[in-house]
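Hi U.,

Before I forget, here's the chain from the pilot set. I'm dumping it here mostly so it's searchable later in email.
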Amino acid sequence: MSSSTEVVLAEVRDAPLSVDELVDAVRDPRAGAVVTFIGYVRDHDHGGSVEVLDYSCHPSAADVAAALAAKLAADGRAVRIAVVHRVGHLIVGDLAVVAAVSAEHRAEAFEVCRALIDEFKSTVPIWKHQVFTDGSDEWVGLP
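Structure:
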């Protein structure tokens, strides 16, 4: 087990994301494993073809993300934790969210990364407005 876990990034950004940035941020000599989750804008959802989407967030989103990462860091299973979600106008193929976790062993890295992305998607107030190729649209994640 790691003696202390460091949250190195927990942000919401309106600029393009970098997988390399997060992997580099969580690298540490104590860590034998780095696990990532990379979420892309896909070309379909709910049976419809997605043209574009816009992510928006509550002003507290970055604070909620940081609190979540700190909660997961508190148990000491990971070495470093990073998660960044993009907001704004995105097109198919853009990176929407990237999470990276380093840990001494792979099992902990996988477990913490999965918990991080699952809890992030269910608790951080970020909303998606999808526009489909047929002109219809939908909001996802609204309270």
